[in-house]
Amino acid sequence: MTNSIHPTALVAPEAQLADGVSVGPYSIIGPNVSIDEGTQVGPHCIIDGHTTIGRNNTFYRFCSIGGMPQDKKYQGEPTRLEIGDGNMVREYVTINTGTVQDVGVTRVGHDNWIMAYVHIAHDCQVANQTILANNVQLAGHIHIGDWAIIGGSSAVHQFVRIGAHSMVGGTSSIRQDIPPYVMGAGDPFRPVGINSEGLKRRGYESDTVSALKEAYKCLYRRQLNVEQALDAIRNLQAERSGAHDALQVLIDFLTADGRGIARL
What we know:
Blueprint: E1 4-5, E2 10-11, E3 16-17, E4 22-23, E5 28-29, E6 33-35, E7 40-41, E8 46-47, E9 50-53, E10 58-59, E11 64-67, E12 80-83, E13 88-89, E14 94-96, E15 105-108, E16 113-114, E17 119-120, E18 125-126, E19 131-132, E20 137-138, E21 143-144, E22 149-150, E23 155-156, E24 161-162, E25 167-168, E26 173-174, E27 182-185, E28 190-194, H1 196-201, H2 206-220, H3 226-239, H4 244-255
Parallel strand pairs: 1-4, 2-5, 3-6, 4-7, 5-8, 6-9, 7-10, 8-11, 9-12, 10-13, 11-14, 12-15, 13-16, 14-17, 15-18, 16-19, 17-20, 18-21, 19-22, 20-23, 21-24, 22-25, 23-26, 25-27
Antiparallel strand pairs: 27-28
Helix pairs in contact: 2-3, 3-4
């Protein structure tokens, strides 16, 4: 298998392209870029910076990948961008490298669906199987868990964490952390319940979904502070052994450092 490089594309001699990589017309690949097999780079894309890209990704036309961070503190340090396998990256998406003020690496995991005009800023950590709809704007240092869905034209404040399996409605303004499994929307974002339909589609048992709904009530409906809610969720975990692992994901999120969770 050989590469398919359009004659008008500019690929730096130092760039590392595995077998089966295709590069479309007028695209530019920088010298510090590594792209694994099967990845397709469409026309008019720029991939530069210290960027590593895995297998079988698709970069649609006019993407800008691996550009320097939009951070005034950036002084040209060789920070990085790492992208995993199987991601769909649609037109006009921008993903920047990290900064030395954080871990120095922006990361996008596997099998993410990133729609048109999405911006993923420096030091963001996007996990796997997420959906970022059109024009989602991620500021720096944001962490997004597996299977999270963020609706179109939503904006996320820097350092916010968005938990696994959460779902955000379109045009939301997200200024505080969204716990795992929670769904909601608004400016500012307000939770409305558990993403139960999404969990069922991913194979969660009804008893586990029921336990997560009860945990949501502890967190949002019983006028408890976060510490009191955590105690109640731990008690629930002891009672509902089948939901132990799912509840532990929520407990770990609530006990980690963050911006404070979004409230009703």
